[in-house]
Specification:
Elements (H helix, E strand, L loop, with lengths): L1 H7 L5 H10 L12 E5 L6 H16 L2 E6 L2 H17 L1 H4 L2 E5 L6 E4 L4 E6 L15 E4 L9 H6 L10 E6 L7 H15 L7 E5 L25
Parallel strand pairs: 1-7, 1-8, 2-5, 2-6, 6-7
Antiparallel strand pairs: 3-4, 4-5
Helix pairs in contact: 3-4
Amino acid sequence: MDFAQDVIGFEPFPWQRWVLIHGLELRPDGRYRFRTVLVLVARQSGKTTIVEIKNLWKMFVQGADILGTAQDLSVSEESWDNAVDIAEGIPELAAEIRDVVKVNGKKALKLANGGRWRVKAILSRRGRSGRGPSADDVNFDELREHHDWDAWSAISKTTLARPRAQRWAYSNAGDDLSVVLNALQAQGWAAVEDPSADPTMGLFEFSAPSDVDCTCGRLHPAPHRPDCEL
């Protein structure tokens, strides 16, 4: 939180603070508690800010190699663009920047300490995504758009050789086609019920409980009434 508040001047929302503190918990050996972190939150809630703050902290403090991915390249580039603006606008951080590549499709932010943030478009079954170089932290944005396991299986392997690596996936609610999101969400629920089932899986879900239904009878797109249970 010191980096976010004192260096960047950002005051996180309570849910953002919770994710950043607990998603980055450490084990006694210095590795991250969670190898995979799934963040489920509604649109326009500050999800992109989590990506920016966490990635900048890992780059500037740990010299981490970051890879941002999304089915639509513009999605991962949005976080990258915002982060570059933040870093270039703070003299303390700007002094550590070695190179900024702003060519579309090849964007990269490189630091003097070896930290780097690249962005990459990921492809579906019709255009298989290559594995690529290793990374300390891989971000999968809009996970609900993953309708097969091709991209996840290929890109998540880039973290295997890194001892303190993490895979962060972000999404709002998906549907029946969101096979990767649905599987990881179920895996997270199972870990909540029995942490020994998968101690490396972290689920941070900000949504209504599954057993709560609408009680106001609203018709989409009208909002739910204030007294609605949902």
